[in-house]
Amino acid sequence: MATTTNDAVVATHGLTKRYPNGITAVDGLDLVVRRGEVYGFLGPNGAGKTTTLRMLLGLIRPTAGTATVAGGAPGTPDSLTKVGAIVEAPAFYPYMTGYDNLRLLAIYCGVPVKRVDSALDAVELTPRARHKFSTYSMGMKQRLGIAAALLKEPEVLILDEPTNGLDPQGMADVRNLITELGKGDRTVLVSSHLLGEVEQMCTRIGVIRKGKLVAEGTIDELRGASTLMIRAQPADQAMAVLSSELGADKIKLMDGSAFSLNVDFARAAELNRRLVQAGVDVSELRESERSLTEVFMELTGTESGL
Amino acid sequence: MRALSGELFKTVRRPSVWVCVIGLMAAAVTIGYAIPWLIETFPPAGSSRGLPPGTTLADFKVALYPANFVRQTLQNWSTLGGVFALIVGVLLQGSEYGWATIKTLYTQREGRIVMLLGKLGALAVVVLVLAVGLFAVDALASGGAAAIDGKSLEYPDFQLIVKGVGAIYLIFGFWALFGFTLATLFRQSAMAIGLGLAYALVIEVIIFTLIGSLGGDWVKEIQQWFPLANTGYLASSFGRVALRGLETGGLAPYRDATHAVSVLLAYVVAFVLICSVLLRRRDVTN
Prior knowledge:
The structure holds two protein chains of two kinds.
Chain A: E1 8-18, E2 24-34, E3 38-42, H1 49-56, E4 64-69, H2 77-80, E5 83-86, H3 98-109, H4 115-122, H5 138-150, E6 156-160, H6 168-181, E7 187-192, H7 195-201, E8 204-209, E9 212-217, H8 219-223, E10 227-233, H9 235-246, E11 251-253, E12 258-261, H10 268-277, E13 281-288, H11 292-300
Parallel strand pairs in A: 3-7, 3-8, 5-6, 6-7
Antiparallel strand pairs in A: 1-2, 1-4, 8-9, 10-12, 10-13, 11-12
Chain B: H1 2-12, H2 15-41, H3 69-98, H4 101-105, H5 112-149, H6 158-186, H7 190-212, H8 217-223, H9 227-236, E1 242-243, E2 246-247, H10 257-281
Antiparallel strand pairs in B: 1-2
């Protein structure tokens, strides 16, 4: 999908946040999230994800750069009316019920109170809706947060690590919910440091490291082209054959007898034949894909969250 | 309007706000009427010592009767009642930081200034409840005391009562906004309540007591611009309780009610401006 100005629902240009103590949390970020996609904002802890999302919601003022969210400047009524959000842990009034908390937000947003029931249904929280927020488990709080974000029937959902603190079942439920919410025209921008989560939910990913966007694309684009893995002996003879067929720049010797070839898998049979004809024993031949974890570690210089 | 409706919706559901309202009413009845009435009706032995000749503690009960309830309410509660208002002001703003709900507030629809105005509107309503409730409770208590003692149930003019409510509303409004501003400044409740109470009950009094010992009118010239002095001027402008034809209490206030109202209103405006600037400019990081 080509990026055009028209279908960019969230766009930042040179977005920067520098704190008075000299720390640059976000550094010249250029980000484009298109209408209808579930965009994963991926990065290790402290990479600048939450700061970015806070700037997109107008909670933090950028030091430099610009941002547009749903056609308006962050934090303005033009933008906020079309945006639902959870930033870090969902925050509600502990002395009120879940239902009353959503009623309150309906009043603030000027949306019909009857939407409260449908939002609670969407996150399957209706049975506990009349209980005080302070009695909710972490999972219920998170679901109430998502219900609150849905209340405005927003064009854009901005969710900051929405599965934080959830048990595996809760995480799976929230992931499924986000995938559902992302269907159709609605745009979802979800931050996470969990690769598996992003891989399951997102149609496109941006990777942030030390406040800079270091990669952006679909999961396949980030993984890059698949490679052909061959294990053959004797290795020097195999290397000679493969070099003459492909050129040395497309061959990477992995260990004593394993080669990673940067070629299309369709050439596997042909290469196998050449090696065998040259007297080389081929013991393994398969397509090899880089995992997203490997990509993430390469890009961020860290270990992933999973 | 949406912001005000929302703030009122959550404020009336908040138990701690009602604790403050009911706490003030309960204190008004017990400290302002029940305990003094008991002491003055059943004076302990030797309690007349130090009083003017021919005067007993029972003579002081005149302060508890309806004719004096406006003066009595203002004298008793301009500072102590202000403390309750200060706590309400702190709670309404400080808790938003404590619960991190400030980020929820600012990601709904309206801008920060509109949300602030909504919150100030709700605070104004709660302070009005405090002021009217206090006067209502004191009116009832004074009537009760007079009825028990078989004294006159004659209340002051309605106009004076309204002026009294207005005066205490301004005083409470000042304290509530003081608390609100401290909570905004420190982004929390604990520090704001601590400092607010310290100021209301100790700091200004100590400073001017110490400086006052140096003597000279220049101290009063400075003091006239400080809040506690002005709440005192305003409360005293309603006069003091006449005991057997003589006014009780000390000297006449240094400045009149007009001065006090002007200074307190200036503080109110300054607090609103400070909160607006702080909320507009600062990042929400919690």
